[in-house]
Automatic annotation (TrEMBL):
It comes from the Eukaryota. It is an enzyme of class 6 (ligase). Pfam families: AMP-binding, AMP-binding_C_3. This is long-chain-fatty-acid--CoA ligase. Gene3D superfamilies: N-terminal domain of ligase-like.
Length: 358
């Protein structure tokens, strides 16, 4: 709640934030834009179109700038950076989890190219950049994907001088992490495209194995749900050893600025979403306890849209529920880097999950 105030005070030159931080900034910008005049909204849209074209060309090695770029920078890009406390920042980075494509593209269009970095405490090294990927392998290092599935996704393993020697006085753990050939097993799932760019798709320990034996990485599906349904704050896929997948959902709401605890009142973006559908709901409780038909229908349509992109029947979402409180660090559902603590959430909402499969 106070991060932007801190950034404005410090004015960092390099900023690394976990995906959830960038998503919150994304929401803040959209909330402010919703209150702007129609003229400002048009200028913002024009600047975004210009920024996306410029930065897409930059990634292809082209440096020519359209005539309107400098005007867009003065009117929009510089003001956005200043509003976030990032006017002096020359490197924008994200790590710890995959950054949603919609968030990455949003900031790219505002001349804030976010580099997704990937590494472990046991290895290191930033390298090439490509939107939505973690870049290419550093010269002198080697990567491979083991136990790949039909889509080419497998565990990311690394070898080279950058790999650590082992854990101090923990030989058993070291042997579990580094195999006899010196390959470091990261526990992360990834794929490599035909240009050699690495894309991280999730963690092995997060994988859901359906009753039919199909492995499902939850993070890409959860990110897609949040992209397709703007009112959704957090989404956690469940269904390990079950006949079908279900998902726990929370709604975007205001946060207590002092404690970071989620409040009952919906965020301005969520309220705007409700109004666009004709709903007069202002709180999470109103929507959940009354099962607001307008909101529930919109969410189901979003789930249906996500299911259309599923690569198999096993990856389709069959049931969902809206929880009455958003996840938070204070509530125990999120860790210090805002990653979901899945076992804790599964235990806390055990009743709701069991109801999916009764």
């Amino acid at each position: 709640g106070t991060l932007v105030h801190t950034l404005k005070e410090i004015k960092p030159t390099i900023f690394l934030g976990v995906p959830r931080i960038w998503e919150k900034m994304h929401d803040t910008i959209k909330d402010n834009l919703a209150k702007a005049s129609s003229l400002r909204k048009k200028a913002f849209t024009w600047a975004k179109d210009t920024g996306l074209k410029v930065n897409t060309k930059r990634m292809l090695g082209k440096r020519d700038l359209p005539l309107g770029y400098h005007m867009a920078k003065a009117l929009v890009y510089s003001r956005v950076r200043s509003s976030l406390g990032l006017e002096r920042c020359r490197a924008f980075l994200s790590g710890a989890a995959p950054l949603p494509e919609s968030t990455s593209e949003f900031f790219l269009s505002l001349d804030i190219p976010i580099g997704e970095i990937y590494g472990l405490s046991e290895s290191s090294g930033p390298h090439s950049m490509s939107t939505h990927s973690c870049g290419k392998i550093v010269s002198g290092c080697e990567n491979m994907l083991v136990q790949q599935n039909k889509d080419g996704t497998g565990e990311v393993c690394m070898w080279g001088r950058h790999i650590f020697m082992g854990y101090l006085d923990r030989e058993d753990t070291t042997r579990e992490t580094i195999d006899e050939d010196g390959w470091l097993h990261s526990g992360d799932l990834g794929r490599v495209d035909n240009q050699g760019f690495l894309f991280i798709t999730g963690r092995i320990k997060e994988i859901l194995i359906t009753a039919g034996g199909e492995n499902v990485a939850p993070v890409p599906i959860e990110n897609l749900v949040r992209e397709r349904i703007p009112i959704i704050s957090n989404a956690m896929l469940v269904g390990d050893r079950a006949k079908f997948l279900s998902i726990l959902l929370t709604l975007k709401c205001e946060m207590d600025q002092a404690s970071g605890a989620p409040l009952n009142r919906l965020s301005s973006e969520a309220i705007n979403f409700c109004r666009s559908l004709g709903s007069q709901a202002d709180t999470v409780t109103e929507i959940v306890r009354q099962q607001d038909p307008l909101i529930y229908e919109a969410i189901q349509q979003g789930i249906d849209a996500v299911n259309l992109e599923a690569t198999s029947e096993a990856q389709r979402i069959h049931k969902w529920v809206i929880l009455e409180k958003d996840f938070s660090i204070q509530g125990g559902e999120l860790g210090p880097t805002t990653k979901m603590k899945r076992p804790f959430i599964a235990q806390k909402y055990k009743t709701q999950i069991e109801n999916f499969y009764q």
